[in-house]
Amino acid sequence: MEFTINRINTVMGIFRLSGELLAKSEATAIRYSSAEFMGTDGWVAINTETEVGLSMLNEIKAEVIEHLTEGCDAVG
To answer: What's the domain of life for this entry (predicted)?
Structure first.
């Protein structure tokens, strides 16, 4: 399911995300096409191809999945 989340408040801060939710048997994965977090001067892009970027997004994975499965702001 493709999704766009314009704003989600998480334990790590505020994020703007888009991508695809992938359900594979018992595991759920997220493939991000874009990811940003709210910095002090506005939105800051997250490089989803680096270990640091993926680590940050992995920290909020459960919150993103919960948000998407509730149907809030999901497109797809």
So the answer is: Bacteria
